[in-house]
Design brief:
The chain has 340 residues and is α+β, with helices and mostly antiparallel strands. This is DNA-3-methyladenine glycosylase 2 family protein.
């Protein structure tokens, strides 16, 4: 029994969406950056781990829209309803400093508390299994982010359909760099500039051969093109309950339950929306809660029933626990779309 629950070594990014953010060197909020920026200070209602809260927003270590730096900062480049913007977040001594640049700066600062989990209610969660209780105890700073943005989670989620994560991350990285724009403020300059993802119209105008160069097959590209044509309607889903937003997303051909769940977990901070149709998640949840490495979606949902209202949180804690069955099958092979 003890061997089954032995955690795996911690990686920079785990299945549960954790990014390594270095601890700050001293207490007390520092002065803002020299570059002109709008700022906001906010005191979170409890423990806050920036790497855990914002980690699910990073799409691979080379994501040009996301960066964690050695001074304990997390940077995000976003396309907001008010235009492109860059947000830098730092946590010191129980307080958070947000700095923002660009036309979307004020929108990003207004949404800073919800981005950092202010709308989440982790205290309402009651662990029912030892592995879940242990993961929660070790990570008290986990809160569920709410970005208030749909398209920025939808497009990379579509890119992740039916391919390896490395392939999806590469496609996202290349397309954002080729067709996005430099992030406002200091993040958009230097040797490794950050980028804001393209707007809906730009996505719609990407030529077919550029999708191919990025390794994106026609099916995924077509899904994205259909989605950006109704981008305004999809973005309105942030004002709806998560279930309604998922239903609206799934009207788009090519967007199914797996993709819609991945989106609302980020756009809405949806604590109860479980990812079904995943290649690995049912087996990991089944192994952690019942010793069943061959669990399917139906079994996973049954095992998560005691966490109704917080099933996504429970699944994420299981992923963060490191408890998983040993891999006995080859990794999904990479596919050259030119051969399809």
């Amino acid at each position: 029994m003890a061997g089954r629950f032995a955690p795996r070594p911690t990686r920079t990014t785990t299945r549960g969406g954790q990014v390594g953010v270095p601890a700050t060197a001293r207490a007390g909020i520092p002065r803002p950056s020299a570059a002109p920026a709008r700022t906001r200070r906010w005191v979170p209602p409890g423990p806050l781990d920036l790497g855990l809260v914002l980690g699910p927003l990073r799409r691979g270590p080379g994501d040009p829209t996301f960066r964690a730096t050695a001074d304990g900062s997390v940077w995000r480049a976003c396309r907001t309803p008010a235009g492109p913007g860059t947000l830098r977040v730092r946590a010191y001594g129980g307080e958070v400093l947000g700095e923002a640049w660009g036309p979307g700066a004020q929108w990003l600062l207004d949404g800073l508390p919800e981005l950092l989990g202010a709308a989440d209610d982790p205290e309402a969660f009651v662990p029912r299994h030892r592995v879940v209780a242990g993961a929660r105890h070790r990570r008290p700073g986990l809160r569920l982010t709410r970005t208030g943005l749909v398209l920025e989670s939808l497009i990379p989620s579509v890119l992740e359909q039916k391919v390896t994560t490395d392939e999806a991350y590469r496609a996202w990285r290349l397309l954002v760099r080729w067709f996005g724009e430099p992030a406002p403020g200091p993040a958009g300059a230097g040797e490794r500039p950050m980028f804001v993802m393209p707007g809906a119209r730009t996505w719609a105008l990407i030529p077919s051969w550029e999708w191919h160069r990025a390794g994106v097959d026609d099916k995924r590209a077509s899904t994205i093109l259909r989605a950006v044509r109704v981008a305004a309607r999809l973005e309105q889903g942030v004002g709806m309950p998560a279930a309604g937003a998922r239903a609206r997303l799934e009207v788009v051909p090519g967007v199914g339950p797996w993709t819609s769940a991945e989106v609302v977990q980020r756009s809405h901070g949806a604590a109860d929306e479980v990812t079904v149709g995943d290649l690995h998640l049912p087996g990991i949840v089944g192994w952690a809660l019942a010793g069943d490495r061959f669990a399917d979606d139906e079994t996973m949902l049954r095992l998560l029933e005691p966490y109704a209202g917080h099933r996504h949180r429970a699944a994420r804690l299981i992923l963060l626990s490191g408890v998983a069955p040993a891999r006995r099958t080859p990794k999904m092979p990479r596919v050259d779309i030119g051969l399809l």
